[in-house]
UniProtKB/TrEMBL annotation:
Annotated gene: pyrF
NCBIfam families for this protein: PRK00230.1 (NF001273), pyrF (TIGR01740)
Name of this protein: Orotidine 5'-phosphate decarboxylase
Origin superkingdom: Bacteria
Pathway in which this enzyme or protein is active: Pyrimidine metabolism; UMP biosynthesis via de novo pathway; UMP from orotate: step 2/2
Keywords, alphabetical: Decarboxylase, Lyase, Pyrimidine biosynthesis
Length: 239
């Protein structure tokens, strides 16, 4: 796969107009992420815009609820014909299994290909200290992220969202067929902001990530096209 196809850019903007402007500004981006901000403000309209331009879509709604509710949401989301969809692993085994079944059902009903359902292991904005002190989780962070990924795998999910700092371990244990998508990516020249467990794009790919989610270093730059080109160039030197 061309290196630029491994980069997913989030449309973390407040409205549909800003989202379309960003898509127009970055014509070489093939894979876009629609998340909570845009979907809550503007609904699914952006999905049709992206599809009409033959873009791939990661619908990152991070479902987290009881099994019956996540199943209903996943059934509806699968009907949009997106490529990737997220649920929090901490929704638990019953919810993950119900979500997986609902994705197949929703896609079948809509006559579209089912999205790959992937589980959030632990948000990349959480540090080891916050996991222990705020969330009261008594495991070491890498052990916890691995446990969440393995649970998702056992429940039939296609992959996981993890920080690049855990991706090598997850790749080794979950195997090559398990999709690993990494946000928290920061080129050496970019600000980390709220991301706590980051690596550079090249480091993340070398560690085994399938896809990199890279937002503000590109979209918050004065020249998004230049930032995109710099990242693609960094990755091309690996190929
Ligand atoms: O653990 C997670 C899960 C999802 N995200 C999302 O990825 C992007 C990252 O954007 P940046 O601007 O590159 O920080 C954003 O849409 C998050 O909702 C994450 O960061 N961490």
């Amino acid at each position: 796969m061309n290196t630029h196809k491994k980069i997913i850019v989030p449309l973390d903007v407040p409205d549909l107009q800003s989202a379309i402007a960003l898509v127009d500004r970055l014509p070489l981006v093939d894979f876009w992420k629609v998340g909570l901000e845009l979907f809550t403000s503007s609904g699914p309209a952006i999905l049709e815009v992206l599809k009409s331009r033959q873009k791939r879509i990661f619908l990152d709604l991070k479902f987290h609820d009881i099994p019956n509710t996540v199943a209903g949401a996943c059934c509806a989301a699968a009907g949009y014909g997106v490529d990737l969809l997220t649920i929090h692993a901490t929704a638990g085994q019953d919810a993950l299994k119900a979500a997986w079944s609902a994705v197949q059902e929703g896609a079948l009903q809509a006559g579209v290909k089912p999205p790959q359902l992937i589980a959030i292991t632990l948000l990349t904005s959480i540090s080891s200290r916050q996991l222990a002190i705020d969330l009261k989780v008594p495991l070491e962070l890498p052990e916890y992220a691995l446990a969440m990924a393995l649970m998702a795998q056992e429940c039939g999910l296609s992959g996981a969202v993890c920080s690049p700092q855990e991706v090598a371990q997850l790749r080794q244990i979950c195997g090559d067929d398990f999709l690993l998508v990494c946000p928290g990516i920061r080129p050496s020249w970019a600000r980390k902001a709220d991301q706590k467990r980051s690596l550079t794009p090249a480091e993340a790919i070398l560690a085994g990530a399938d896809y990199l989610v890279i937002g503000r270093p590109i979209t918050g730059s004065d020249d998004p096209q230049l930032a995109w080109n710099q990242i693609v160039e960094e990755l091309t030197t690996l190929a």
